[in-house]
Write a structure and sequence with these properties.
Length: 326
């Protein structure tokens, strides 16, 4: 955010708080929407809310409530934090209600006040602190960057933050991944790094589904083994168990389609048979929307062998339709 942008934002804030119309080019529309929501929530720009200490009970409850998400998020957060050239960042994972459940930062570094801010149990939701990347990402359910005086509260103007939403295997919002630093930096590359970390977290949750066949798909075969791949999980009978956000965007209907045979122009049994071949190449098939995609295994072939055995006819010659145990 350059000096001219800071000035334009300052002018936009003056107009906003005086009840006048804002020049649309000065502030992104999503920021203006958040300012309006913050004001409707009864917040004032001069409020001092940022460093309110969370009670021990709140910290414990937040940690317990977010235990499963913490287990998946912390490895990726640690990997990402080590990739930063400087240690004046704080990474945090917040639950769907906006409470911090875990964070990584340098308690002795130049941003130790940020480390104290991102304590477990602290609420950084829009209702608690107004406009900020974590709260906006939760409300808008998309990646968000908030610079300096784009924040609603005056006391946050010295910081900039980027946040991306996290979704579970059913596509439901479960939290956000956030990075915060002192203002004055371009956060676009940081936001992209958060996107990649979020994809990895979501994929780990998906690949941990027990007893599932995990399939990668993409219209470009070279992307099947990358974080850009769509991933779906199916039961041994072809029932959809979950998918990542890339799959939902690529296919556009994974909430309504619940069976492999309804999602692709290829029977599930045939797909399993072809994927079970040694050194199997990706399968090419079409979706009902007419998109040609490549399918491959997203993990070890043991998945395919197990599912393939489940599809073998029993001695009676009839297909076994025993439901998989929960």
């Amino acid at each position: 955010m350059n000096l001219e942008q800071v000035r334009q934002t300052r002018r936009a804030r003056d107009l906003f708080f005086s009840g006048e119309s804002i020049v649309s080019q000065w502030v992104p529309e999503p920021i203006t929407r958040s300012w309006e929501r913050s004001r409707r929530l009864g917040l004032s720009a001069s409020d001092k809310r940022l460093f309110d200490m969370a009670a021990p009970g709140e910290r414990r409850i937040a940690t317990e409530r977010g235990e499963r998400l913490i287990r998946y998020a912390m490895p990726e957060m640690t990997r990402l934090y080590k990739a930063f050239h400087t240690q004046d960042w704080v990474l945090a994972c917040l639950d769907v209600s906006g409470f911090v459940i875990c964070s990584i930062g340098d308690a002795e570094g130049p941003c130790r006040e940020l480390e104290s801010l991102f304590r477990n149990g602290v609420s950084l939701s829009e209702s608690a602190i107004g406009t900020g990347a974590p709260g906006c990402a939760l409300v808008e359910q998309k990646p968000f960057i908030v610079h300096a005086n784009e924040h609603f509260l005056d006391e946050i103007h010295g910081y900039s933050c980027a946040a991306v939403p996290l979704f579970d295997v059913n596509g439901d919002l479960i939290g956000v991944l956030n990075a915060t630093c002192r203002s004055g930096r371009d956060l676009s590359s940081v936001c992209e790094a958060l996107r990649v970390a979020a994809r990895a977290i979501e994929n780990h949750m998906l690949l941990d589904l027990p007893g599932a066949l995990h399939v990668s798909l993409h219209y470009h075969p070279d992307l099947l083994r990358t974080p850009l791949a769509a991933v779906l999980a199916f039961s041994e009978h072809g029932q959809l168990l979950g998918g990542n956000q890339i799959a939902r965007k690529l296919l556009g209907h994974t909430r309504s389609a619940t069976e492999f045979d309804h999602m692709f122009d290829l029977p599930f049994a045939r797909a399993v048979d072809e994927l079970s071949g040694r050194n199997a190449e990706p399968i090419v098939t079409d979706t009902p929307a007419g998109i040609r995609v490549h399918l491959s295994l997203a993990r070890h072939a043991d998945d395919v062998m197990r599912v393939g055995k489940a599809l073998l006819p029993p001695p009676s010659g009839r297909l076994c339709c025993k439901n998989r145990e929960a």
